[in-house]
Amino acid sequence: MTGITLTAIKETDLHFVKQVYDWYVLHSTATFHTGPVTIAELHEFIYIGHPRFGSWLILHQQEPVGYCYLTNYKKRQAYDKTAELTIYLRHDCYAKGIGQAALEQLEAYARVSGFKNLLAIISGDNDRSIHFFEKNGYFKCAHFKNVGEKFGKVLDVVGYQKEI
């Protein structure tokens, strides 16, 4: 898809990020948060101005339609070549090629930043995300059974990996 760009998230963008994320919190099992997050909580995983791990708005023809980010998989030096990636689109922006374009740009950034492995950690019932990552060359490398519960449903978590 053309017209998709990533731009670094600024503090003033966090209200948009919160709006997108809170929709998933309240309506899906894509995230294991069970109530709306605060801006302070967003800072725990949305890094602003970090020299390696970035957070970006996803723009479609200059309009924000989602966000994505790379975080450290674990905060230990031996994992420095591995990043966890996350993509959230506005719920009305699925199946339009936006996520695909964002993923391609994230992977390119990860390569030039020296990462060798990308991980996607996904709720086991999130078939849309599982299919998306499989379609893009990620393979299932982990399956944690019954580790979460949301909306009265016990949930698995699966891990997908791609060597880049």
From TrEMBL:
Residues 4-164 form the N-acetyltransferase domain. Keywords: Acyltransferase, Transferase. Pfam families: Acetyltransf_4. It comes from the Bacteria. CDD domains: NAT_SF (cd04301). InterPro entries: Acyl_CoA_acyltransferase, GNAT_dom. GO terms for molecular function: acyltransferase activity, transferring groups other than amino-acyl groups. This is Phosphinothricin acetyltransferase. It comes from Niabella drilacis (strain DSM 25811 / CCM 8410 / CCUG 62505 / LMG 26954 / E90).
